[in-house]
Amino acid sequence: MSAAEASPEQANAQRRYEVRRGDLPLSCPLPSMALWNSHPRVYLPIEAEGGESDCPYCGAHFVLLD
Question: Domain Zinc finger CHCC-type: where (predicted)?
Fold first, then answer.
């Protein structure tokens, strides 16, 4: 099964997500996640928050890796 055929990740399945600069701008749920079973997409200011940010909807914690 190719990546294009793979189903999207389950939204909000984890409490901690590691992201890289190539993933910015950061949003929750992430673009690879299904939106139908999640909250509205919100953009998180991870660079302005010292490399860590929490989603105000689901509480997922994002950490920016260098």
Answer: 38-62
Examine residue 4 and state whether it is found in any structural domain, yes or no: no
Report if residue 45 sits inside a domain: yes
Q: Are 29 and 12 in contact (CB under 8 A)?
A: yes
In a domain, residue 5? The reply is: no
User: Which pair of tokens denotes residue 45?
Assistant: 């200011």
Residue 58 pLDDT > 70, yes or no?
A: yes
Per-residue confidence (pLDDT) for residue 2, from 0 to 100: 36
Q: Is residue 24 part of a domain?
A: yes
| 14-17: long-range pairs with CB below 8 Å, 24+ | 14/60, 15/59, 15/60, 15/61, 16/60, 16/61, 16/62, 16/63, 17/60, 17/61, 17/62, 17/63
Residue type present at position 21: R
Split into its structural domains, the chain has a count of 1
